[in-house]
Design brief:
The chain is built from twelve helices and 19 strands. It is an alpha+beta fold. The protein folds into three domains: about 140 residues, Yope Regulator, Chain: A (2-Layer Sandwich), CATH 3.30.1460; about 150 residues, no CATH class; about 70 residues. It has a six-stranded mixed β-sheet with strand order 7-6-5-4-3-8. Strands 14, 15, 16, 17, 18 and 19 form a six-stranded antiparallel β-sheet that branches. The chain has a five-stranded antiparallel β-sheet with strand order 9-10-11-12-13, with helices on one face. Strand 16 and strand 17 form a beta hairpin. Helix 2 crosses helix 5 and helix 6 packs across helix 9. Keywords: Signal. This is Lipoprotein.
Amino acid sequence: MKKIFYFGIVLVSSVTIAGCSISIGNEPENKDSSNNEQKSEQKNQNAQDSNSNNETSKSNSDKEVTNISETQSVAMTLLEPEIDSEVITADELLSGSYTQKTGSGEEIKHSVDKVGLSESPELGKMANKPDGMKFYGMSPSKGSYATIVGINKDQVVYIYTQSPISDYNDVKDSEAFASFNIADLYNNHKDNSKISELENKIKYGESLETKNDSSTSQEDTNSDEYYAQVWLTALPSYRDSDNSSGMKPELSHDSIEGEYLNPYNKEHTIKYPKGVQRLAGTPTAAGQVVYKNNNDGTISIYDVPSHFHDKKWLEDDDWSQKESESIINNPKVVKLYDASDEEIERVVEMFDGTTKEENKSNDMDEDDENEEVTRDNVIDKVESYEGEELDTDKYTFKEPEKNDDGEWGFSFLDKDGNLVGSYIINEDGVVTEYDEDGEEVGSGE
């Protein structure tokens, strides 16, 4: 019995020890499993935190992009090399000068202090334009085209054009178009210190609003009323009802697109672009306006001489070519003058050659028109044609003489006695000017 008892004790002890052994052996496994679970949870938490941070960062970035102003967006585009030949660059704007390259390859420097953005409601009517996009005219323009800037919350686009734009799809795939994503601009330039400086040099100008009445509608730009508005815009002296000069000009209009700018040297000049028109006064001293309607409430005015007196127009082929290109490439873009009805009416009367006062005294008007050309007034006729007094300090003018056809004429010399040119004035008072070789230079009253 004792043996059995002891055996039982041994068996129980073995079981107990074995139980203890199993219990001890299992403790490290539970601990490792717990650690692995904790590490996995921590890794998941870190991933969640990272994703959360990324989402927060993206959200903040999106908010920053959303809060970018129009002028900031435009400022960032000026840093893009893609448009540096079409638009004034950031460095040019900050340095105060930009370079324009003419068709002949000549580089012309211009000063610049600000870039102006003038909203164009007319362009806002463009078909198929991106949602929410507003259009601005940018000035100065770097070429003989209008620079249009379109901006919405997603992109900035540039359009370079010499013609009206009615459909966005007509230009978006052309070479005269550039588009920039604002988010990309922000990511590329957000740390650039030039942005704030550039933004301060981009200013909003007066909106290029057009009147609601028909006087500024597209179909009305061929009316005497519109011509009168152009005339008053380009020649402010005519806004004054008190015409102290006593001049009673008659005005005419014609389209000159495709004509040579310098008709006396056609091989070394350029032709007027599409849409260019001319308003001319008679006598010539009344002035002329060579312009193009930009269909946004502005016109481009070209500084074309009314007479080609300078010999370089005829003799210096290279100069004539470059000067012609410079004139066409550098029009002055101005907003149409908001003329009063009285001002418009007064100028409109010039287009049919009458005024209210003249209608009241036709007999007196006929006497003026039929004034005989004499030795006493022939110089006055020429000065009226030139728009200024003859320069007796620079030239010597011969005495006027009358030929067998009843025309008056005289020549003029430089101070060395060399023939410079001459004038012929017919019985109607029309002046024709000739150079030293007898080639016609111009004519008018």
